[in-house]
Amino acid sequence: MTTNEFRKHVAWLRKNFPIDVPVIVRRYPSKKNHGITHFDGRKFYIRIDSEGDDATQLETLLHEYSHALTINDAYNHKEPWAQNYSKIYTAWESLDGKTTTTLQKF
Ligand SMILES: [Zn+2]
Q: Ligand 1: distance of its center to the CA of 76 in Å?
């Protein structure tokens, strides 16, 4: 996936699920995890492992963006995060009828 393609996905998230604080999204290689989200008190920083295949990178992006969207309870996978993840995933899958298994073709 090119950087431009990746940025389009990020732009789609920003447009459809705006967040009140800045969210910085970057891709670079990581051996530790597919992605991580960190809040420094002012901004969210999302890092996606650029070595993952396209589907993994996209699913990780949706997962991590859900953490940032759950701004007051961002650091776990409890109900508020799960609800946001569900909303994002549902909207994503409704794009031209795409499903999880065809994410990499988007
Ligand atoms: Zn998570």
A: 6
